[in-house]
Amino acid sequence: MNSDQADILDLLAGHTDDSTIERLAFECLMTSLTDDRVASLMNVLGWRGDFDCFAIGGTPETSPASASLVARKAVRDLGGEHVIVGTYGSFLLALVCQSGAATAEVTCTSIMPAFKDDESVYLSPVRSGVAGASHVLRETLFSLQAAPALASPSRPLRADELLPERALLGDDYAREELYQNVYQVLHGENPDDPTFVTVSTFLRNGSSLENTAKELNVHPNTVRYRLKRAAETTGWDATDPRDAYVLTTALAIGRMRDR
Question: Which ranges of the sequence are coiled-coil (predicted)?
Answer without folding.
Answer: none
